[in-house]
Amino acid sequence: MIATLGGFTLFLALGVTLYAAAASVLGARQGREDWLASSRNAVLAHFCLVTLAIFLLEYALITSDFSLRYVVNNSTRESLTRYKIAGLWGSLEGSILLWEWLQSLMAVLVIARYSDRGPSGCRQLMPYVQAVLQGISVFFLLLMTFAVNPFARIFPIPPDGRGLNPLLEVTDMLIHPLLLYSGYVGFSVPYAFAMAALITGRPTEEWLRITRRWTVVAWLFLTGGIFYGGWWSYRTLGWGGYWAWDPVENASFMPWLTGTAFIHSVMIQERKRMLRVWNLVLVTVTFSLVIFGTFLTRSGILGSVHAFAEGPVGVMFLAFLALVLLFSFGLVAYRSDQLKGHGELDSIVSRESAFLLNNLVLVGICFTVFLGTIFPLLSEAVRGNKISVGMPYFNKVSVPLGMALLLLMGIGPLIAWGRASLNNLQRNFLKPILGAAAGTAVLYVLGMRHVEALAAFALCFFVIGTIIFEFVVATRTRAGTMGETFLTAFGTLLLKSRRRYGGLIVHLGVVIAIIGIAVSSVYKVEREQTLRPGESLTVGRYTVRFDGMEAGERPTHILVWANLTASQDGKPLGELTPGQRFYPNQQSPFASVDARYHWSEDLYVILSSFERDGSSATIKVIINPMISWIWIGGVVILLGVIVAVLPERRLALLTSRAKAQAA
Amino acid sequence: MSWKKALIPLACVPLIVLLAYGFRTDPKAIPSPLVEKAAPGFRIAVYDGDSLSLEGLKGKPVVLNFWASWCYPACYEEAPLLEATWRKYQNQGLMMVGVDIQDKEVDGREFIARFNFTFPNGPDPGSKISIDYGVYGVPETFFIDRQGRIAYKQVGALSPDVIEEQARAILEEK
After folding, report:
1. pLDDT at A586 over 80
2. Domain covering A525-629 assigned CATH 2.40.50 in the classification
3. CA atoms within 13 A on the CB side of A120
């Protein structure tokens, strides 16, 4: 019953979506307000139908309705309810449904946000924005109707399901995919606005202003998803790392890079009316990379730990990608005459120039990551060689570019627009440069000799210096002129120039994360040893004693673990229990990592292997200094974005309340 | 629109063509560096039999097949072929050995009984043999000639044509 109802709901949604797209375009062209109103209703109906489909599939999952193939493949009767719910996005069909649901939600939010209250320019763009958004939905609905139906039946009905992949039966599964998908789908909105601007022939600054906040919020989710993915990988997978340059990890990183470039270059377009074509291209490339990313996971053309399945899906995704690229760039070419900018660079030593360089570096990193990702394919096509491109290439290429980016992060916010005078440069940068030199000298004296780490730290100190400098000077000035206390001045600054100071907080978060990455990579220590009960392994200041093996049954698997006692400099730290999970349907066990996480360094322990009679166990101990700074940096980035994106009405309320309290 | 402007969207076409080419390749098919090299030696404890070593089979052509009871459907598809080929050529001096990898003994024996395997099969504790042969998944089959060199490696289920052709090749070459 659910299968029929679900399939029908999606089919109906497809029809409604096609209608919404058509009514939008025709209504705009004929000037028929009633058709436009009807198309808006259709967008709402589309969302309701897809929501119904989600409810149906979730209901089937939670009640373990094994007449649906998807439920069989993604849950078992014994699974905890929250993993049955997460089974919705556990594999291909459901993940497409989730994506489409988010896409339909975006369309509704766009109507809600912009339909009546927006500036007049909006109203002309809106029908085409909706047409593009609905068009994207048409693709995903077509996928589900004709290729990968989440409501496909299975016969005979098996007594139990095969279950979610055991690696996914963790709380992280409830968060990571949702964050990422929100980011990916969020980027379709600026894309739709850009296309609408090109279609209507109004490719001016309006679409930028309208969608800037959307882009930043989508970026927020994507950033959160990427950091969370690294954190999940680190805590759960048991290889001690957080980023492997896997094709699908790269697929999330590339749109992030172009998205970041876009967020910066819009500031130049706003001020100087330059870079119009560049920004349109960036937005298109960001969205195309999003589609490219999902194409990679679902087409089977590249091997990856994240890969889903193969079949007609890959071909359909490629066709859609081709359509997006040809359509978007065709429009850009068509409107290229109207897109010529008005501004010019006054000087190379200026904020515009710094932003341009920032864009070049970000796009440069994106290009190298892209090349590395598709290189195996390129190599096989051109030379017939099967090769794989891994960490060495990506690290070698991204580290120097990352350093360049760090430098720009310090210079950009403080250097003057237009032409920076020598006075301006000296005033803003002298102290941070001195501070950076001093800080680096201190590190050198304390024993740090690794050249790249020293260089990274020097740049990080420089950036932190500029951020602190900016905050302190601005706060002091304000406190002085307004007669406020330092704290009040600081708070008001944050709220009044939230874009600027939110941005600075984001930069601070990035620097913290980079410090974490640099130190944990360079100074990581690893030791593996086979121990008998009572024996210990010493790494650095830590000693880990093996006390014995234990095993126990869990709802979906058998857990075997080693009991370890850890101590630091002789002081006991507590127990650690790294283990392995044995699932009935899987031939090899999955690692269950245990660690002592600390802001200064992590003590990370893996159970590599063990004797069945418990007579010995092979333990690997990894010390990751300052790796928590990566996650802390991620949180600071998120806080910074929230500050930057706080809506104006709430801001006015807060400041008036603050004034009332002060009075 | 002038043709120069049309270049902009058309610039995307080579990328799309490259990605389309990707559908014809298999990222999981890894070429084996062992082909035409000496086959790594092994010793296997045959179920209901003695132990068997590659050295003891010197001078004979050997078909070495890696399988598992949980390897569905590929191992189930090729199992009858293996037994049939064994029965056909064992009198001519062909040797066939099956290695049951990462499996439970009770399931392995059930698999052997189901397909009436009469050639020697045994487990691979510690996956030593699989590691030496670079086995990536199951099933994989190695055709070893009389000189102890790997003549051919098959990844995935064998088809009647391939097993016939390769078995003949190692039998007939001097």
Report:
1. no
2. no
3. 0
